[in-house]
């Protein structure tokens, strides 16, 4: 079990690479001259808009990034309350460029996931939340969609959730051992008094899990500490930044010693690469 409180971080990822330009001059008089080498462009992440049907007829709208090669690990991204899937766009593109299939989706009642198959509107009580059974059924529909995609290794699926999405992530993963890893951004102990995460993290077992919060989000920082204490998981890791806000807002946090770095994205990729790419 590893718990890290960030005081000052100087971590960076620098990756660059582009095909070398062909500077040789073609000799039109030489009939057996070797052809110029092809210039292969760098892979560019491109999202496909998809629709996923839930058991009760809601049309969940998502962004799916296809994997580049076979047997790829895959990520399911679930946003925080009142947000939408696009809060993950930059992260999804980066992970897709690094070999992952990625699916983000708008939770029911948010973003474009606001209609049922019969055309009726999906309404959400912003104060009371959503029935957990519906949220878990939505997560299951998304996991099933992701696991059936070409080139996806169904045994290497990780779930990332922010705020209430983190509660759904750990509650779902606890009951589905096929989920190989989980990342919880700004988790709570019991959001809306109907999303209890302590029993879930206990049932999750020893699979890899990363919990992240910021100290200026006091409730989530305390929740990370509490969940780590109760998990008793040797493969649980936690990082609490001194600032950064709530949920996916932490992606925007910069390292004061290296403005070009992306601390949260770097942290998550390192964790996920170890948990999913190295997994047999």
- In angstroms, what separates the terminal alpha carbons? 21 Å
- How many strands? 11
From the spread of the alpha carbons, the general shape counts as globular
Order of helices and strands: EEEEHEHEHEEEHEHEH
The total count of helices amounts to 6
- What is the chains' assembly state? single chain
Derived structural class: alpha/beta
Taking the sheet with the most strands, its summary is: 9 strands, mixed
List the helices and strands and how they pair.
Elements: E1 2-5, E2 47-53, E3 59-65, E4 72-78, H1 89-97, E5 101-105, H2 132-147, E6 152-162, H3 164-174, E7 179-185, E8 190-191, E9 195-196, H4 198-203, E10 209-214, H5 218-231, E11 236-241, H6 263-277
Parallel strand pairs: 1-11, 4-5, 4-6, 6-7, 7-10, 10-11
Antiparallel strand pairs: 2-3, 3-5, 8-9
Helix pairs in contact: 2-3
Describe this structure in words.
- The chain has 280 residues and is an alpha/beta fold.
- The chain has six helices and eleven strands.
- The protein has helices at 89-97, 132-147, 164-174, 198-203, 218-231, 263-277, and strands at 2-5, 47-53, 59-65, 72-78, 101-105, 152-162, 179-185, 190-191, 195-196, 209-214, 236-241.
- It has a nine-stranded mixed beta sheet, sandwiched between helices. A two-stranded antiparallel ribbon has the order 8-9.
- Strand 2 (47-53) and strand 3 form a beta hairpin.
- Helix 2 (132-147) crosses helix 3.
- The longest helix has 16 residues, at 132-147.
